[in-house]
User: Which sequence fits this backbone?
């Protein structure tokens, strides 16, 4: 996953860094389907803060660190198979998700934010396209944050940042959605 924050305050920049998620989705339905899922993940955002030098010195000081968050993502997507063949499926999905914030830390100790500065969770809209090829599935996704990241604490209440995440799911299909779509041409030559 790549997760960044929107609307950085003055003197701060956010840049998405590589993270990971591990979890599972289930699909119920054929062409039109419901896809609930749960994922545990670690997301990283590089945060750079620029400010005036301290103790009367001239110039600016730049501090960079990685903000690392552990989340439990719960989602429920509604999807539709756009291409539905025996060997290849292409599907689109859209639906809400909720990220439960489990921990916040920074790698170098240079950021003053801690878990208490963040909301305990955030609502999102997730969208994706999926490609199924036999047992394998590939799905690029995006998650658009709807909730503010930071609490209404006076120290961080002016920051209106939201999460923006991109991911690539690589997985295995368990079950056979093609079980009932065996080719109907019974006159075709059979290989023994």
Assistant:
């Amino acid at each position: 996953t790549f997760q960044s924050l929107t609307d950085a305050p003055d003197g701060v920049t956010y840049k998405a860094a590589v993270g990971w998620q591990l979890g599972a989705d289930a699909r119920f339905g054929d062409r039109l389907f419901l896809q609930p899922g749960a994922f545990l993940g670690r997301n990283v955002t590089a945060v750079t803060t620029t400010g005036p030098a301290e103790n009367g010195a001239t110039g600016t000081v730049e501090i960079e660190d990685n903000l690392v968050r552990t989340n439990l993502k719960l989602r429920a997507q509604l999807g539709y198979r756009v291409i539905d063949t025996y060997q290849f499926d292409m599907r689109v999905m859209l639906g809400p998700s909720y990220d439960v914030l489990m921990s916040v830390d920074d790698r170098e100790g240079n950021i003053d934010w801690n878990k208490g500065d963040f909301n305990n969770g955030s609502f999102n809209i997730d969208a994706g396209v999926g490609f199924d090829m036999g047992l394998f599935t590939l799905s690029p996704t995006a998650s658009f944050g709807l909730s503010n990241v930071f609490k209404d604490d006076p120290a961080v209440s002016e920051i209106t940042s939201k999460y923006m995440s991109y991911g690539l799911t690589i997985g295995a299909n368990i079950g056979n959605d093609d079980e009932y779509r065996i080719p109907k041409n019974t006159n075709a030559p059979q290989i023994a």
